[in-house]
Amino acid sequence: MNNSTAVNKRLFLLFWLVMIVCLLPFVLLSFLNDMAADDFHYYNLYRSHGFWGVQGYVYHTWAGRYTTTLLNSSFVGLDVLHRYYWVPCLSLMAGTWGACLFLVRTVYAVVRTGSEIPGILRLVAPASVVLCVLLLYVQADIATGFYWFSSAIVYQPSMILSLVLMGLLIRRFCLAGSGSVSLDVLILLMMALLCGCNEMAAVFLLVSLGVGLVAFWRGFSRSALGLYFGVVLAICILIALTSGVLWVRHKEMNGSNSVLGIVSAVLYQLVVVLFSVFKEPLAWFAGIAVFLFGVRLSGKDIPMIAVLKCKKIFSVGPILLLAVVFLSLMFVMIGSRGSLPPRAINNLSGWVVVGLLVFCFAGGIYRRAQGSGEQGLGLPLVSPVVLATMLLLALLSSINYRDAWQSVLSGYFHHAVARDRDRQLTGAGGRHERSVMLVSYPEALEAQIRQVFPNGVFTTVHDMVRDRPALLYPYDGAAAGDRSYSLYYGVDTIIVKK
Length: 498
Hints:
Layout: H1 2-30, H2 38-61, H3 66-77, H4 80-83, H5 86-112, H6 124-137, H7 142-147, H8 149-174, H9 181-195, H10 199-215, H11 222-242, H12 244-252, H13 259-278, H14 281-297, H15 303-308, H16 311-315, H17 317-335, H18 346-369, H19 384-396, H20 399-430, E1 435-438, H21 441-452, H22 459-466, H23 477-480, H24 483-489, E2 493-496
Parallel strand pairs: 1-2
C-alpha cells in the first residue's frame, strides 16, 4: 500500500512537471505578442465614440456581438492592449481552464451520486488541465485563437461560456434537486451571453438545441428544452433584424451566392474541423482514457449512466454531431456568402472534440453493459505508468508544441521590432509630427538579429529566428498602408525606406 501511494505521488509530480513544460512556451508567447490590424481600428473607434457609443456603433454597422464588444471595450478603455498586451491572452487561458475545471467538477459531482470511487477526486484538477490543453491544441488557428486580441476576444469567450453552459445543463438534468428556477435563469443568461459572442456560437447553440429537442424528446424535460430553444431562437431573430449582420455585413462580403460554391466551402471547412481534431495525439489519448473511464463507471447506480447506456447515444450521436456542425457552417456561410476565416472555426473544433469525448464515454458504458467481464477493458488492468507515458507522448508530440517553441525563438525578434516601432511612432505622435520615416520590416528584423548575434550566427538558426512566428500574429501596419495604424499614433503619413 505504501509503495502504491509513493508511486502515485511520483506520477502526480511527474504529471505537473510535464504540464509545466508543455504550457511554458504558450505562456511565454503571450509576452511576445503585440497589437495588430483591428486592434488599432477598435482603439480609434473607442476614441471617437466612447465606451457606450462604440457598443451601438459596432452592433448596428457590423455584427450583433454585444458580449464580446463589451469585453473589447473594457480592455481598450483601460488601455490594457497598449500597456499589457499579455493580460487578455493569459486571462482567456485562465478562463478556459476555469471553465474546464467547472465542467469536470460537475461530472465528478454526478459520478458521486452513485457511489464513491477511490482516488477520483484527485483526478479532477489534472483532467481539467488536460482538457484545457486539448482545446488549445485542436484550434484551427491558435494565433488568432488566443494571441491576436481582436480575434481571441470574439471567439474564445464563447468557448468558455459554452463549457460553463455544459456544466450547468448537466447539473440541471442529472443532479437530483437541481431543476430549480434559479438554475434555469442562470442557463438562459449563459445562452444569451453566448449568442452575443459571435455568429457561429449563436447558430451552433440554436441548431444544437433544435437537434437535441428532437433527438431526446422523451429522455429529458421537454418543457425546459423547449424554453431554451424558444429563448435562443428569439435572441437570434432579434440580433438578425436589429444588428448590421444582415443589412450591412452581408452586403460587404465579397463571397459567392451560388449553392454549389457555398456547399463546397462548407464541406471543406468541415474537413478542416475534423482534421484539426484527429491530427492531435492528445485527442486520441483522451478518447481512450474517457472510454476506459466509462467502462469503469458502467456498473454504478448513477442516473446519467442509465441514459448513456442507450446504444443510440454511441451510434447515432456522432452522426448528429456532424449534422449540427454541417448545418451551423451552412447557415453561417450563407450569411457570410461563403466567406469564413480559419479563426471562425476554432470554436467548432473545440465543441467537436468535447462531443466526441462524450460519445467515447458512452461507448465505454455501452461496451460494459453488453456483457464484458468485470475486469474487461477496465482501468484496473491499465498501469498508471503506461497511462502517464501515453499522456506525456501525446502532449509533447503535437506539431503545435513544436510550433510554440519556434514561435518563442522567432517571436522574440519580431516583438523587438514591434516595440521599437511603437516607441518611434508614439514619440512622433507626441511631438505632433505629420510624417514619420521607418526602415522596412525585414531590415529592422535583421538589425535586431545582429544586435543579439553581433558576430553572426549559423544559417539554420538565422532562418529560424527570421521566420514568421507560426503561433503569433506579427503585423507590419506601415507596409500595409493601414490608415488605422497611423491614425492610432496620431500621424498622417508613415514612410517606409526601400
